[in-house]
Amino acid sequence: MFTAFPFLPYLAAVVGAVLLAVRWTAEDASPLARAVLLAWFVVAAYCQFFGGSAVLSAAGLALQTALAVYLLIWWRVNG
C-alpha cells in the first residue's frame, strides 16, 4: 500500500503515543480523560496493526490520525 514511504502507517501511531504521553503528564488531565484517550489509542492501534481486513486496518489508521490531530490541537491550545 505505502511502498514509497513504508514508515507512513506508523507515523500517526508514534505521534499519538508521544502526544498521549505529554497529555498524560499534564496537570489538567483527569483520570477519565486519560482512560478514554488510552482506550482510543489501544483500540486504534489494534485495528490498524492487527486488523484482519484492509477496511479494519484503514479504520484503525483513521482513528490513529484523528487521535493525533486531536492531541496536536490540544497541545497547541494548552501549550
Summarize this structure as a short list of keywords or feature phrases:
single chain; 79 residues; mainly alpha; 3 helices
Q: Could you characterize what this model shows?
A:
With 79 residues, this protein is mostly helical. The chain is 80% helix and 0% strand. It is globular. The model has no long low-confidence stretch (mean pLDDT 85).
The coarse overall form would be: globular
> How many individual domains?
1
The Cα radius of gyration reads 13 Å
Topology order in helix (H) and strand (E) letters? HHH
Tell me the helix content. Answer: over 70%
Kindly name the structural category. mainly alpha
Are there runs of 5+ residues with pLDDT below 50, and where?
A: none
Report the span from N to C terminus. 35 Å
User: What number is the mean pLDDT?
Assistant: 85
Task: Please count the beta strands (DSSP E, at least 2 residues each).
Answer: 0
Give me the secondary-structure topology.
Blueprint: H1 8-25, H2 31-50, H3 54-78
Helix pairs in contact: 1-2, 1-3, 2-3
Short description:
This protein is mostly helical and 79 residues long. It has one domain. Helices cover 80% and strands 0% of the residues.
